[in-house]
Amino acid sequence: MRLTTAITRSLFTAAIAVAAASSAAAQTGERPSGAREGIKVHGHWVIEVKNTDGSVATRKEFENELALPGDEPYAGVGNRILAALLSRNASAGLWEIQLHGVNVELCFNSTSPQPFGCIITEPAATNVGSNYFRNLTITPDLVAGTVTLRGSARVQTGTPGILRLAITHVTTAMRTCSAGTTPAAPCTVNQSGGNFTKTEVPGPQPTVVFDQTIDVTVTLSFS
């Protein structure tokens, strides 16, 4: 009887300890130790707004999330892109970084009345307008398991030194090609894919004026 009582007390004490640890983890946002569920896609953004003399006017760091169908604004197909690549139903195409404002976009195509976001894409891209900037570089780290996208855009909307616009939403996009396309020579026409990651830029949102440069670094990682 004494042994049974001692075991019962030990189990009760252990249950209380587990409950307390779970409650503390929930309050701090930490995961309890043990098995993890799912695979997460992370995107760490660094945006630097620079003046024409090269000085840094604003620097902002934040995180994004996987873009999924139905997400608004700027819904995406991040889950479908991953499924297509992992099942060999598609080949990796060109990457893009997209920067958006509200109502008045940061960059625009002068040949069209419709405003567009600033789109930073790879040098091989062919479907480009005045709002495209073909200087995107891709740097993989196969040990850390990360992919870093870097590029820059020049603000073309507004009057010099007067109209100040906020960068409110950002996305990364991956274009995909047919399964038989070599990834080292990705397609530039007949592309599929779409937004891969997205987020609303948390406040205070960086603001820009005409002729400033926006330097962007996005580091994608997985856990």
Radius of gyration: 23 Å
Helical proportion?
10-25%
| SSE run | HEEHEEEEEEEEEEEE
Q: What do the pLDDT scores average to?
A: 81
Structural account:
Helix content is 16%, strand content 39%. The longest helix is centred in the first third of the chain and has 27 residues, at 2-28. A hairpin with a 4-residue loop joins β8 (137-141) and β9. It has 2 domains: 1-37; 39-222, no CATH class. It is globular. The chain has 223 residues and is of the alpha+beta class.
Keywords:
disordered N terminus; 2 helices; 10-stranded mixed beta sheet; two-stranded antiparallel ribbon
List the helices and strands and how they pair.
Elements: H1 2-28, E1 41-50, E2 56-66, H2 78-86, E3 91-100, E4 107-108, E5 115-116, E6 118-121, E7 132-134, E8 137-141, E9 146-154, E10 165-166, E11 169-177, E12 192-200, E13 207-208, E14 213-222
Quick recap:
It contains 2 helices and 14 strands; from the N terminus they run αββαββββββββββββ. The protein has helices spanning 2-28, 78-86; strands spanning 41-50, 56-66, 91-100, 107-108, 115-116, 118-121, 132-134, 137-141, 146-154, 165-166, 169-177, 192-200, 207-208, 213-222.
